[in-house]
Specification:
Elements: E1 10-21, H1 28-48, E2 54-59, E3 65-78
Antiparallel strand pairs: 1-3, 2-3
């Protein structure tokens, strides 16, 4: 029998994602472009589901490490 006063627990997926980049270069314009390129690459990988719960190196087009991305998937109980 359905109880209208009973709220079943619902699991809501959650994602925590932190990105840290550290770049050096000839000028601010270059740094901005390189950072934007790295963020686009990370966004594409995230959308494809390439990350697991952990820290992963962020790299530039040449494979050089330019920072890290931390991804943490979890579920939260909502009433």
């Amino acid at each position: 029998m359905h109880d209208p006063d009973h709220n079943p627990e619902i699991m809501t997926p959650r994602l925590k994602c932190d990105v840290e980049l550290e770049l050096s270069g000839p000028n601010v314009e270059s740094l901005n472009k390189w950072a934007a390129d790295a963020l686009r690459r990370l966004a594409e990988r995230l959308e494809l589901g390439d990350f697991e719960d952990r820290f992963t190196d962020a790299t530039d087009r040449t494979g050089k490490k330019v920072g890290t991305i931390y991804v943490d998937y979890s579920d939260e109980v909502t009433l």
